[in-house]
Design goal:
By secondary structure, the protein is α/β, with parallel strands linked by helices. The strands form 6 sheets. Strands 14, 15, 16, 17, 18, 19, 20 and 21 form an 8-stranded mixed β-sheet that branches. The radius of gyration is 31 Å and the shape is flat.
Length: about 775
C-alpha cells in the first residue's frame, strides 16, 4: 500500500519539479502576485486540487528566496500527504517544519484559517516566526496563537484567529476553544469554525496527550476538612493486608481488613452506611495520592511549592492542568504543602473530539506507522512513510538486559565512560525526572561534565539539544526534552562514529523507543542507538508476565543464579519485555479509547448546549413556550416535595417573588393541580409586571434571551463538574467487575435528564426574580439572583 502511494506522490512531485524553472524565472513581484492569481481562481470556482501543483511550486521557490532552503523531493512528498489529510511519517532531521510551508500556504489561500499545531510554545513561536516570513512575503497573514498573557482581550484574540495561517499549541487552542464557548455575549467570541489543522509531532499530540481531557476550572468548591486526617490514616495501612492494587497498579482499594481498620481509626460503626461518604471519598483520594501518584513521575513540586502535573509519556509539565475532584489537594497534603482551593470543572473536552471538528486534519511525525490503526480508527487518517533524503546508516544495537536497576545503570555508565573517552557525543535518555537526576549524580561521581534536561524549560532545552552533537558532549534528557530540534554533528564527530543514543529502559511505547533512536542518524549521518533494560523497569513490573516477576523475586533471594554483573542473555527474557511493552502500548490505546468513549456522552450534550448558546448570542428569536416551562417546573415541585403552607411559601419566596403576601391557607394544598394553578397565577403577575417595563418587542426578546442564556450557563457548569467527577468515580468500578463505560453513560444520561429539569427551574427563577434597572446613562441592565 505504501509503495503504491509513494509512486502516486512521485508522479505529482515530477509535475511540480517541471514548474521549478518557470518559477525561478519569475521576478519577486511576479512570484508574489501568484497569491492574488490563485485567490481569483478559487473565487471563480477552482478547487485547491486544481491549483495545488502550481501553488506548491510557487511556495517552494519562495522558500528558496526567503529562507535560503529549497524543499527536497521527499519533503514535497510529505507536503502532499499533509495536503491530502493523512499522516506523513518523516524521520527526525528530514525537515518537517519546512515541509509544512507548502500545504499551509495552499490552505491559507482560502482565508478560512489554516493552523499548524505543535506540542509547546517554543516550537510554535520559533516556527511561526521563521516560516512566517515566507507567508508574509507571499501576501498571507500569519499569527502566533500561544504564549500570550491570559488577559489578552477578545478583540486581540479575534485578530489572531482571523489570520490566514496560525501557529499554536494543542493546549492553547483547546483552552481558547472552551473559553470561547463560555463567552457571555457575541462580541466577546473570537474563534471562527475550525477549517484546517496540521499537527506537528502528531503521535505526541493526537495520541500520547489525548489520554487526559482538557478541563477549565472555575470558582472554588467547598474543600473537605477531612483531607488532613485521611492523609494521616494512610500511613497506618499495610500493603496487601489493608489495601490492594491491581497488577498494572492503575487502581487501589481498601480490603475488608482495611475497612475494619478505617472504622476503628475513625470510631465508626459502619463506614459504608451512607452517612460517611465524604470521609470515604477523602480516604480514597489520599490512598491514590500515596500509592498510585509518584513524585517526579506523575508530578513535581516546583520551587514555589506548587504541585505541577507531568506527562508520564515524556516527562513534560502539563501547563495549566490540575487534577479534579479533590485529588490535587490530596497530593498537596501528601507533600505537606499549602492546600490550593478545590475548583469546579466548568468546561471540558478531549483532544480527540477537539481535533475531529476540523474539516481537514493531517499530521507529521517521525513515528506514526506503528500507531496507524489508531490514527485510522480515531481520526480517519492513514500513515504514509516518506523515504529519507539520504540513506539511513545509523546502527541500532541489540538491547542489553539486566536483572536489577543498579546493574543496568552501572553497565550503561561503563559504556558512557568508554564512548566519552573516544570523544563521541552521547545523548542519554531516561523515562522520568528522578532517574535523570540519579544518572547526573553518577556522572558527577565519574567527573564527566554533562547537561541535564528534565523537559521543564523548552527554550533552554532546544538550545542545549542543538549542541548535543558536538565532540565530547554528554546530555542527559527525558524522552520529550528538545523534541523538534535537530542535533547536528560537530567537526570530526562523524569520523568517530556520530552521536550515540543510549536509552536507560524500555519506554511505555515502541513509538517512544523509535523517537529516541531517531535522534541519531539524521540526513545520512552515522550514529548508534542502544537500550539498557532491566527486569525492574516500570514496563516489566506493571505489564510483564507473572513468571518474570516471580523470577526477579527468586534471584533476589538467590543472587548466585545470575552472573555477578546481573547481565542476562536469554532470548526469552527479551521477548517477555517486548511483550510487556506491547501490552503497555495497548493499555495506553485502551485508556485513550475509554477517554474518547466517555466523552461521547459529554460531546452530545456539549453540542446541544453550544448550539443553543450560539443561537442566543447571535440574537435569534427565542421560541420557547415559557408558560409550559414554568408549568413543568411547578409540577416537578409538587411531585418532589409535599405541598404545605411552609414549603409552598418558601418556594414562592425563593423562586417567584420576594413581595408575596397571599393567603396559602385558602389553597387546597392536598390537590397538586390546585397548587400548580396557584403558582401559575403568582408567576403570571410577576411576568406581567416585567413586560410592562419593556420599551418594545426587541427589548422583551433580549430579556428572554438573557434569561435562557444565564440558565443554560449555570446548568452547564454544574453538569460539566458533575460529569468530570463521575469520570473519576466510575473508573474505580472496574474493581467490582463492572463495565465503567456502561456505568458512565447510564449515569451521564441520568445527569442530563436532571439538568433538563434544573434548566426549567432556573429559567422560571430567572424570569420571576430578575430585576431590570436603568442606570444614569439610560441603559437598562438585567440582574439575576
Amino acid at each position: 500500500m505504501n509503495g503504491r502511494e509513494l509512486r502516486r506522490l512521485k508522479r505529482m512531485v515530477n509535475k511540480i519539479n517541471r514548474l521549478a524553472p518557470q518559477m525561478e524565472a519569475l521576478s519577486d513581484q511576479e512570484l508574489q502576485n501568484q497569491t492574488v492569481k490563485f485567490r481569483k481562481q478559487l473565487a471563480n470556482g477552482a478547487t485547491l486540487d486544481d491549483i495545488v501543483v502550481e501553488a506548491f511550486a510557487t511556495v517552494r521557490e519562495a522558500d528558496r528566496r526567503v529562507l535560503g532552503m529549497f524543499p527536497f523531493d521527499v519533503q514535497v512528498m510529505g507536503a502532499l500527504v499533509l495536503f491530502h489529510g493523512q499522516v506523513a511519517e518523516m524521520k527526525t532531521g528530514e525537515g518537517k517544519t519546512l515541509t509544512a510551508t507548502m500545504p499551509l500556504y495552499v490552505y491559507g489561500l482560502t482565508q478560512k484559517g489554516a493552523m499548524l499545531i505543535t506540542p509547546n510554545d517554543y516550537l510554535a513561536t520559533r516556527d511561526g516566526e521563521e516560516m512566517g516570513q515566507v507567508y508574509h512575503w507571499l501576501g498571507e497573514t500569519v499569527a502566533i496563537g500561544c504564549g500570550y498573557d491570559d488577559d489578552l482581550k477578545p478583540e486581540e484574540k479575534k485578530a489572531i484567529y482571523q489570520a490566514d495561517i496560525i501557529y499554536t499549541t494543542n493546549s492553547a487552542l483547546g483552552f481558547d476553544y472552551l473559553l470561547d464557548n463560555l463567552a457571555p455575549e457575541q462580541k466577546k467570541k473570537y474563534m471562527r469554525p475550525f477549517y484546517c489543522a496540521i499537527i506537528d509531532e502528531a503521535d505526541a499530540v493526537l495520541l500520547d496527550v489525548a489520554t487526559t481531557p482538557l478541563v477549565i476550572s472555575g470558582s472554588p468548591q467547598m474543600s473537605s476538612n477531612l483531607i488532613g486526617v485521611s492523609d494521616e490514616f494512610i500511613y497506618t495501612l499495610i500493603k496487601d493486608q489493608d489495601y490492594r492494587m491491581d497488577e498494572e497498579e492503575e487502581n487501589v482499594w481498601l480490603t475488608a481488613k482495611g475497612i475494619d481498620h478505617l472504622e476503628d481509626f475513625f470510631s465508626l460503626h459502619d463506614a459504608y452506611d451512607g452517612q460517611h461518604t465524604e470521609l470515604i471519598r477523602s480516604v480514597n483520594l489520599a490512598l491514590k495520592a500515596h500509592q498510585l501518584l509518584e513524585k517526579d513521575k506523575d508530578y513535581v513540586v516546583t520551587p514555589d511549592g506548587e504541585v505541577a502535573l507531568l506527562d508520564r509519556a515524556n516527562g513534560r509539565i502539563l501547563e495549566g492542568m490540575k487534577l479534579q475532584a479533590g485529588q490535587h489537594q490530596a497530593i498537596e497534603m501528601k507533600e505537606q504543602l499549602e492546600l490550593t482551593p478545590d475548583t469546579r470543572a466548568i468546561a471540558s473536552i478531549t483532544y480527540q473530539n477537539l481535533f475531529r471538528q476540523f474539516q481537514l486534519l493531517s499530521g507529521m511525525t517521525g513515528t506514526g506507522k506503528v500507531a496507524e490503526e489508531e490514527f485510522i480508527e480515531t481520526y480517519s487518517m492513514k500513515v504514509v512513510q516518506i523515504p529519507t533524503n539520504k540513506p539511513m546508516i545509523r546502527k541500532d544495537l541489540p538491547d542489553q538486559l539486566f536483572v536489577s536497576l543498579p546493574d543496568k545503570l552501572m553497565a550503561s555508565l561503563e559504556l558512557v565512560k568508554k564512548l566519552h573517552q573516544q570523544g563521541r557525543p552521547i545523548l542519554l535518555i531516561t523515562a522520568n525526572v528522578d532517574i535523570s537526576e540519579l544518572y547526573s549524580e553518577l556522572l558527577l561521581r565519574e567527573q564527566i561534565p554533562h547537561s541535564v534536561l528534565n523537559a521543564k524549560d523548552v527554550a533552554k532545552e532546544a538550545a542545549i539539544i542543538k549542541e548535543a552533537g558536538q565532540r565530547g558532549r554528554v546530555t542527559v534528557a527525558t524522552t520529550m526534552a528538545g523534541r523538534g530540534t535537530d542535533i547536528k554533528l560537530g567537526p570530526g564527530v562523524a569520523e568517530l562514529g556520530g552521536l550515540a543514543v543510549i536509552g536507560t529502559e524500555k519506554m511505555p511505547s515502541k513509538r517512544i523507543d523509535q523517537q529516541l533512536q531517531g535522534r541519531a542518524g539524521r540526513q545520512g549521518d552515522p550514529g548508534t542507538s542502544q537500550f539498557f533494560v532491566s527486569l525492574e523497569d516500570d514496563v516489566a513490573i506493571k505489564f510483564g508476565a507473572k513468571w518474570l516477576r516471580d523470577y526477579v523475586k527468586k534471584v533476589q533471594k538467590r543472587p548466585s543464579l545470575v552472573p555477578e554483573d546481573g547481565h542476562l542473555t536469554g532470548h526469552h527474557f527479551l521477548t517477555a519485555l517486548t511483550e510487556a511493552q506491547n501490552l503497555s502500548d495497548e493499555q495506553g490505546k485502551i485508556q485513550r479509547r475509554q477517554s474518547l468513549e466517555m466523552d461521547t456522552s459529554v460531546q452530545i450534550q456539549r453540542k446541544l448546549v453550544y448550539e443553543a448558546r450560539n443561537a442566543l448570542l447571535k440574537g435569534e428569536e427565542v421560541s420557547l413556550d415559557f408558560s409550559q416551562i414554568m408549568e413543568d417546573e411547578f409540577r416537578r415541585f409538587v411531585n418532589e416535595e409535599e405541598p404545605t403552607v411552609a414549603t409552598v411559601h418558601r418556594y414562592i419566596l425563593d423562586n417567584l417573588t420576594y413581595q408575596f403576601a397571599g393567603d396559602l391557607t385558602k389553597v387546597n394544598l392536598h390537590s397538586k393541580e390546585a397548587v400548580i394553578a396557584y403558582l401559575k397565577r403568582v408567576a403570571q403577575k410577576e411576568v406581567a409586571k416585567k413586560e410592562e417595563q419593556f420599551l418594545d418587542q426587541a427589548e422583551q426578546q433580549r430579556f428572554y434571551r438573557l434569561v435562557v442564556l444565564k440558565a443554560i450557563d449555570d446548568c452547564w457548569v454544574n453538569e460539566v463538574d458533575n460529569l468530570e467527577q463521575l469520570r473519576q468515580v466510575v473508573t474505580n468500578r472496574i474493581v467490582a467487575q463492572r463495565n465503567p463505560l456502561a456505568e458512565y453513560h447510564q449515569e451521564a444520561y441520568r445527569s442530563f435528564l436532571a439538568m433538563k429539569k434544573d434548566l426549567k427551574h432556573r429559567i422560571t427563577k430567572n424570569i420571576n426574580l430578575s430585576t431590570i434597572i436603568e442606570n444614569k446613562k439610560g441603559d437598562r441592565q438585567i440582574y439575576f439572583i
